[in-house]
Each structure stands twice: as C-alpha cells, then as structure tokens.
Write a structure and sequence with these properties.
Length: 542
Amino acid sequence: MRHFAFLVLFVCLSGCQKAPDSASTAGDLISAGRIAAHVRFLADDALEGRGVATRGETLATLYIASQFEQFGLEPAGDNGTYFQRVPLVGVETLPPSTLALNSRLLQSFADYVAVNNRQQPVAEINAPAVFVGHGIVAPEFQWNDYEGADVKDKIVVLFTNEPPSTDPKFFGGPALTYYGRWTYKYEEATRQGALGCLIVHTDKTAGYGWQVARGLSNGPQPFFKLAEGEPALALAGWVTEDVGNQIFASIGKSVGDLLALADSRGFHAVPLPVRFRGRLNSRISVMDSRNVIARLPGSDPKLQDEAVLYTAHWDHLGIGPAVNGDSIYNGAVDNATGCGILLETARAYSMLNPRPDRSILFAAVTAEEGGLRGSEYYGRHPVVSAGKTAVDLNYDGLFPFGRTADITLVGYERTTLRNLVEQTAKPLHFKIRHDPHPEQGHYYRSDHFSLAHVGIPAFSLGVGVEYIGKPPGWGEQAFEEYNTQHYHQPSDQFDPSWDFSGLAELARFGFRLGIKVANLPQLPSWEPGEEFLAAREKSWGH
C-alpha cells in the first residue's frame, strides 16, 4: 500500500511542474529526465505489465490522460473525454486443452501455442495436414503457395517470412513485406478455407526466439468481434522447430529441407501423412479497452481541421509465465519508452506560441502486442479523417543507452516527406539510417502500419546504432542482446543506470519535423508505386 501511495505521488510530481511559455525554446526544453520519469512509472511492477483490460491498463491510461490534461491539451476521445473506447473480445486458451501429432501428445508452451480464432468456447480438432511453404498468394509476384492444393477443413503447416530476394521488385528485395508476417499467414489460411494454421518457428524465419512466439499466447488474446458467419481459424498457432522436424520426418525431410523447398520458385504444396487431433477450450470475454487521445488545435482556420498525428502504444503483455521467478512483463523498452517520448512531445507542443497551422493529435493506443488492434480501430474511427491527416509519426521500442550519431527511420523514404525529413535532420547532425534489419519486417510490426493501411503517410522514428563514446558495433550488439534476451520477457525492466539523452534528442527531431509538416501548404502523400498510394488517393476521394 505504501508503494502504491508513492507511485500516486510520483505521478503528481512528474506532471505538475509548471513549464515556461516560450515558443523559441519549446523543443530545447524537451527533457531526458522527464522521459525517464514517465518510463519509470509506466514500467513499474504496480502496473502489472500494462495488460489490455487489466488494472494495469486503468493505471496507465489514467496516467497518460492526466498528463495530457495537465499540459492543457483538448480531450479528443469519446464524449468529451481523452478515452476512445476500443471494443474487443478476449480469447484465452485454457487447460486441459490438448493437441496431438498422430499419437504424440504435444505440450502446451513447450511444443506449441494455439488460439481458437473462431471465438468459441470449444474447438474440436481432427484433421490431416498440408505443407504450404510460406502460405503466400501474391499474384503481382506470380507466386501462389496454395495453387492446386486442397486445404479445406485441413491444417496448413507453413513458415513465416517469404521467399528470399535481392530484387526490390520481387517481394521487396531483402526487406520483408506484409506477405511475410504471421498475421498475413492466418488471414490467407482463413481465405483458403483451412481449419487451422500452424507456423513452424525458427529463429531465422521469425526473427526472434521461441520465447517470443510463446508469449503471443499470454492470457486473453484481443480480437475484434466476428460478424455473423465470418470465417475464422479453429486453430491458429505456432510449433517449435523440433516439432516441425517431427512433422516433416513423415516424408523423410527436415525443417531445413522444407524451408529450402518453400523458398524455391517451383514450389507446390505437399500433403503430409500426419493427423492433428485435439481440443481447444477457451474462455471468451468482453475485453473493452481504450486509446488515449489529445488534441492541440491548429492556428490556421483553413487548416486546423487537418492534423499531424503522433502515436505510441501503451500496452504490453501483462502477467504471464514466470521466468526466473518473475511473471510481470513490464515492457520498459517496449513501449514505455515510446509513451515517454509521446508525452514529452505533447508537453513541448503545449508551450508553442504561436501554434502550428494544422492541429496536432497525440494517441497512445492499445493492444499493439495483440495485433495492432488499437491503431487499427483508430484507423477505422479516426478523430481526423485519413484524408486530412498529414502524417503519423510513431514511437515504439526505443533503447535508452545514450546519444547516437544516427537515427533510424523505418519507412520515411516511401513518403513524399523524404526531403523534409533529411533537411530536418541536418541541423541536429543526425545521419539517417533506414531499417537496419529489413528482413525482420519492422514496418509491418508497429502501429504506423495500421495508419498507412488507410492511406496516411506513416513511419516510425527510432534511435540509431552509432552510440557516441561507444566502440564500433556496440549498438548492434546491444540490439541483439535485447532481441534475444529481453524482448517480450520479464527482464525488459526499467534500469536506473539508463541514459535517456538519446531519446530526448530523438524527441526533439520528431517535434521539429511535426511542426514543419503541420505548416506545409499541401498534405503529403506516398511516392509513386508505393503499396499505400491507392489508399491515400481513396481517402481524398480520387
């Protein structure tokens, strides 16, 4: 109780200091200490990992809303509040759910994780399996892994990722496209009429270890409620590489053999002489959540109904399987850091005088970890329509390890803002890095993707890897350590020794960029040939 009282006091102290009113110094007053304070609170054990529809959500969203209010920003949620209700359905797989490969009973979490996407209490599984490579249907690349395959009411077995390429005109070259994402695999399997879809996990194809895939089934999983008669998978899950080898041993092959086959141009689906049997028991619940949204009105009467949007997701994984005795998945880097920058950026804007021509929106969105649900809902129910939103600048998973000589911008080059972005970086002496790990598909793994999907030019802003005062390669090593040891683990916790100076510099860059976009005479768009250009033009009524 004394600990919680301290946190309440901490909230007040971190948000109740009066800021000076100075247009010229607003950006310079962005504070590393304030960002750190937000992260410290949001990643505290008292918030229990900020799981969706939990006590941790209540605390986190009230904290963010109270900060917006203290800054004097207008509520932009429902009914004059800062909260936009996001109606979700929770599906939690319960024991004694079972899944067997032929006669071998698989162990939940150790061998597989699975969810019943049909949002029903019980799913009975008794079906043969078909290997469908990467599970992709991409006519623009003359690629169809399902061609000639009978998968109706069967279990499709596949790999995430996509065929390797160095040609930008073929699956984006080295960069992963949406076809490579696990969410797409489930969507396509559903369209093909499959009963279930099991993704064979490998570190190489997924870009992360089994512990991350396993964590995708921590507690209730958030979904939008299915419409009457809407198809869905009875079994949507992952199996380990060891289980994959057992599956493929039925045809005398290994995971490596089948991955090479899946990558080949002449791939055809392979019926497998195995059968999956089991029963998924699920708890179905109402899982209402909320986005937290605030607005700074623009100063130009002709442009103030348009907006620059800043986003960061507030949620993490909540409470899950204990690792070394710790069951709270605090999500300090992912994504208390993004929320810290969002809040400090909002404070800086509140000190601007005069305000930018266009309005500025700040949205802390829910359920990113469960499939970008909060940002997708905002995209469907925007405060400012997609056609009048100039850009989405998103913050997600930022390393507070000090200042860098570079920043990482994932996807900015796809938009017509490229020159403006680079001009903004020059006075700050930043080198701009494109996605350093394009093969991991980061563009499709964070909330800016939901906004791009409806046409809004959108990209994420992140710190670089050239840490000032650190030896060459230190930043890449830090990324690998986080990705393999702390990503989606209880060990992603606040560290008092962290140096937030680099996050403050990144926030200043994003602040200056947002002002410039807000004052542009015309709304930005996508470069010719980009996959989201058609959605942008549709949002403009073209």
